[in-house]
Amino acid sequence: MENLTKLPKIGSTESIRNMGPLARREFRNGLLFISPWIIGFLAFTLIPMLATLVFSFMNLKLTDNPFDASKFVGLKNYVTMFKDSQIWNMRPDSTPGALWVTIRYGLIALPVGILVPMGIALLVNNANLKGHSFFRSMFYMPYIVPFIAAIFLWNGVLNPQFGWVNGILLTLGVPRGSLPGWANDINWVYPAYVLFGIWGIGNAMLTMVAGMQAVPTDLYDAAKVDGAGSVARFMYITFPMISPVVFYNLVLIVVGLFQYFLVPLALNQGTGFPGGATIFYNLYLYKTFFVFGNMSYGSTLAWTLFVIILIVTITLFATARYWVYYAGEKQ
Amino acid sequence: MSDTNAALQKKSNIKVGIRPGRTKFIKKANPVFVTAVTIALLALFLMPFLYMVFTSLKNQTQVATTGAPIWPAKYPTYIYPGQNKNTYTLKVNKSGFPVDQIINMNDYAGKELEVYKVPMPNGTTKEMALIKGYQKSSIFIDPAKPASDPIVWTGYYLSLGRSWVFAPQWSNYVEMWNDVNYPRVLWNTFFYAFMTTIGVLVSCIPVAYGFSRFRFPGRDFLFVVLLAVIFLPTTVTIIPTFTFFTKIGWVGTWWPLIVPSFFSNAYDTFLLRQYFMTLPRELDEAAMIDGASPLRVLWSVIIPQSYPVIVAVIVFHLVWAWNDYFGPLVYLSSRMDLQPISVALQRFNTLFGSRPELIQAGSLLTLLFPLILFFVAQRFFVQGIVITGVDK
C-alpha cells in the first residue's frame, strides 16, 4: 500500500513529464503490456458503442454506406421508438410490448436468481450437512452444461403431456385438466423459462458460499451466546456480511435480464410463441437488425436499452449504501 | 484464550439462566434430516439429466405413448419356438359372424409374436402371445406352454393391456451422430475452443501482468473501465461490429469469432490479475536486478507460479466456447459446415422437434465434453469463481 503513495497523480500530464527515467520506463512497459486490451476496448467496445449512437440518428439499411451524411435523420428513430406499440403496449388483451415482456419476466426471474442460490448456499454451508464439498460441486455442476442443451433437457422434463414434472404433479393429485402447459402456455411460459435457466445459478451460489465462509465464526458464537436464533443470525450476521456478493450478483442478473432473448430465439426461432408472450426487448432488437436488416432502428433500440440499463444500474448503486456492507473498506 | 472461553461460558450461563424457555427452541437440527432434504433437492435439481439419459434410449412408439414407463422400454414379444406343429380349425368371430378359421401352427414357428395381457376365466390376467387378432376375437398361445393348443379369446386384441420390458435403443445415438454430422461439428467446436483459448492466454496474461505489476498514471482508472465492460450490454456494440465484419467479408468465416479473443476480455484478465497480485514481488525484483526484461519476468517468474489460475482460465474458457451460441449463430448461419455444437444442436431441434429421443441423444452428446472437463478439473472451477466473485 505504501508503494501507492509514490504514484504520480492520475491523469496529470505534468506528472508524466516530471517522471524519472525509471518511472517513465515503467509507464511505457505498463502501457505496452495492457495494449491488447486498449486496442480491443477501442475496436470492439468504445468505437462500436459510439457508432451505434451515430447510426441511431441516421436511416440506414445493412447494405447502405454508414458514412453517407445524407442519411442523417435526427431524432426521427427515437420518435418512432417512443410511439412503437411493439415495445410499450401494456394492454392485457393484446400482444404485450417487448419491454413489458422483459420486465414481467424479470420480476419473476430476479427473485429466483438471488434467493435460490442463496438458499442452496445456506444449505450446503449448514454445519449439520454431511459432505459439504460434494453437494457444493453437484449443485454447481449443471452450470457448465451448454445453455442450449439445458433448454432442451428442461423443455423435455416440462413437456405438458410426457414430461416428468407434470407426471409428478399428477401423482400428487393435481387434476389432469389443470396441469400447467409450461412453455406452450401463455400463463406458464415465464416460470417455464425461469426453470430453463435455473442451472445458471451455480456461479452465484459458489460466490455466496465463499462469502459465507469468510464470515468470522466468532460473530456467530457471540450471537448464539446472546440467544440469537438462526433467523436472527442470518438477518444480522450472514446477510450483511455477504451483501457485497449479493449486490455483485444482483447487478449481473439485472443487466443480464434486460438482455434476455437467447432462450426464445433458440426454442422457437423468435416467433413469440405462445401468443407473442416471448418477444423480449432484445429479441425484438435482434429481429429488427438481423431479420429485417434495419440497422438504424436496431441501433436506436440498442442505445435505448443501454440507457435503461445504465439508469437501473445507477439506481442499484445508489441504494447499495443503505444495505450493502463493506467491512472495513472505504466504500 | 482460555480466559475468553471462560468469559463466554459465564455469559452464556447468565443468558440461559435469564431465559430458560429459550433453550427449548434451540433444538439441534438433525444432521440426517438436513442431509436428506439436501439429497431430495439435489435429486429434483438434477432430474433432467436422468430424463435425458432415459429419453435418449427410447423408441418412437414409447415416446408417443401416454402412460409408458419413464425408463427405456418396448412392448414384449415372443419368438415362437414351434413345438406345436398341428393345424386347428377354430371358431372365431371376425366382425359379428362366427366363422371357422384354420390355423396351421407350422406357419408361426420362428415368428416374433406380440404379447398381450389376456384376462383369464378365473379373473386374473396372463401374458399371451398373439397369433391372429380380429375385431371381435383373437387367437393366442401361452408362451409358458409352447406345445399347448392355441386358445380363442372373445374381444378386440387392441383393447388389451401390454406390459413393457426394459430395452434401450442405442441406435438413436447413431442416427443423431449421422444426422448432424457429429464428427464435423465436434471438430468445429474443438477448433473454436482451442483457437480462442490461445487468444485469451496470449492476450489476457500480459494485460493482467501490466495491470498488476506496473505503476503508471491512469492505471487504476483503466482497470475500472475494464471491469465496467463486464456490466456493459453487448447489444450496444453488436450492430456496428456485425456491419463491419460484413463489409470486410468476414461473415461466414471463423475470423470474427477468433480475432476478438486475441484482444483480451474482462473476466479472464480480472481473474489473472487478482492472482498475480497475491504473488510476492520479491522474486520479480530479484530477477529484474539480475537484468531480466519485464517479458522475461512474466515468462520465467510469474507464469510458473500461476499454473492454478491459468488452468482455471483455460477450463472456464473451454466451457464458455462450448456454450457460445450467439456469435456462431450470426456469423456462421450460412455455413453449416463450420457451425459448432450449440448451433448445430439448435438446428437439429428445429428439424427433429417431434423426435424427443433424438433431441435428448443430441443434448447428451453436447454436454458430454464440458461434463467430463468439470469432473476432471473440478477444483479449478471452484477456485476460479471464488477469486472473481469474492475479492470484488
What does this structure look like?
The complex is a heterodimer of chains A (331) and B (392). Chain A has 331 residues and is mostly helical. Chain A has 2 domains: 2-55, no CATH class; 78-323, Orthogonal Bundle (MetI-like fold). Chain A contains 15 helices and no strands. Mean pLDDT of chain A is 89; it is low at 1-6. Chain B has helices spanning 2-18, 22-25, 31-56, 60-63, 171-179, 182-213, 219-231, 235-247, 255-258, 266-278, 281-289, 294-305, 307-323, 326-331, 341-351, 356-376, 378-390; strands at 73-74, 77-79, 87-93, 98-104, 112-119, 125-133, 137-141, 151-154, 165-166. With 392 residues, chain B is α+β, with helices and mostly antiparallel strands. The radius of gyration of chain B is 34 Å and the shape is elongated. In chain B, helix 3 packs across helix 16 (356-376), helix 11 packs antiparallel against helix 12 (294-305) and helix 15 (341-351) packs antiparallel against helix 16 (356-376). Chain B contains 17 helices and 9 strands. Chain B has a 5-stranded antiparallel sheet with strand order 2-5-6-7-8, with no helix packed on it. A two-stranded antiparallel sheet of chain B has the order 1-9. In chain B, strands 3-4 form a two-stranded antiparallel sheet. The longest helix of chain B has 32 residues, at 182-213. Chain B folds into 3 domains: 2-55, no CATH class; 76-163, no CATH class; 180-390, MetI-like fold (Orthogonal Bundle). At the A-B interface, helix 2, helix 5, helix 6, helix 7 and helix 10 of A face helix 1, helix 3, helix 6, helix 7 and helix 8 of B.
